[in-house]
Specification:
By secondary structure, this protein is α/β, with parallel strands linked by helices. The chain is built from twelve helices and twelve strands. A hairpin with a 2-residue loop joins β1 and β2. α6 packs across α12. Pfam families: HTH_1, LysR_substrate.
Length: 299
């Protein structure tokens, strides 16, 4: 069949052929299709012209399919069944029987503050599903979401792509943290004491010794002593536990962590909103909606 012939086909013709091959009788086919008998005959004539084959011939016990019609029977039935399933309303999502594999882009902060609180409930509610946490690449979030390579991305509101759907999960604030026995954190330090402490900073871009805390200090004509710059929060927590370094960290990262003392900083550092973002392609998908709801309810 040529492309031009394919364009001449419509769904009604294919449905008629499927029923004719099952019934092998124009009258019974018309009854099943709720068509008039002449309409079915017209469809059959069009099909014969398109396929260049009689398809169904008169026989002693009804119409008999030609060899070409026999070739068409199974693939046509399969195609119509697949099309029927495709256009049916989406089935409600049942997490208990689901087998989805979800991909979420997150940095280590998002893993700790967002995904970890949601994980136990996710495993209990949807034990047949899998979760892949992939490296957060801020510049590629939009493209990866559009291509379906990630389902969600966890990011600060300020840096997240504006054209994606988003939901704010929480507002985060910075606290000052050091080891429990730190000699200068028995009480909240003064601003002068804060600047003299040795600080570790998280630089996700790598190697920077300046951040939002330094911006806030600079507005007062002050600066602190940053002696260590690392790309991951996990290393910061380990460094604090084993040295007298201190760090300005998001509160959820150190909340309830044993071995650390957390105090209010003597300088007001602007916090941020944490959001999850996703593409329009999955916005109405019941499984995706359930995952988003579960994460939002867990943090």
């Amino acid at each position: 069949m040529s492309m031009n012939d394919l364009r001449r086909l419509d769904l009604n013709l294919l449905v008629t052929l499927d029923v004719l091959l099952a019934e092998r009788n124009v009258t019974r086919a018309a009854q099943r299709l709720h068509f008039s008998q002449p309409s079915v005959s017209v469809h059959l004539a069009k099909l014969r012209d398109i396929f260049g084959d009689p398809l169904l011939l008169p026989g002693p016990r009804g119409m008999q399919p030609t060899a070409r019609a026999e070739e068409l029977r199974t693939p046509l039935r399969q195609a119509l069944e697949a099309l029927s399933q495709a256009v049916q309303p989406g089935k409600p999502f049942d997490p208990a029987t689901a087998d989805n594999t979800w991909r979420v882009a997150a940095a280590d902060y998002g893993e700790t503050a967002v995904l970890l609180p949601a994980l136990a409930g996710l495993r209990k509610a949807a034990p047949g599903t899998r979760l892949a946490v992939v490296q957060l690449e801020p510049a590629r979030i939009a493209k990866l979401a559009e291509q379906g390579d990630i389902d969600l991305a966890l990011h600060t509101a300020e840096g997240a792509p504006q054209h994606l759907h988003r939901q704010t999960l929480f507002s985060e604030q910075y606290v000052l943290a050091g080891r429990s026995g730190h000699p200068h954190l028995k009480r909240a330090p003064t601003l002068a004491q804060f600047c003299k402490l040795e600080h570790v900073i998280v630089s996700t871009a790598g190697g920077a010794f300046y951040g939002v805390t330094d911006d806030a200090l600079a507005q007062r004509g002050l600066q602190r002593k940053v002696v260590l710059s690392v790309p991951h929060f996990l290393f910061v927590r380990a460094a604090l536990l084993s040295t007298d370094l201190v760090a300005m960290l998001p509160s959820r990262l150190v909340r309830g962590m044993p071995g650390l003392r957390v105090v209010a900083p003597p300088v007001d550092v602007r916090g941020y909103d944490m959001v999850m973002v996703w593409h329009e392609r999955s916005h109405r998908d019941p499984a995706h909606q359930w995952l988003r709801s579960h994460i939002a309810a867990s943090v």
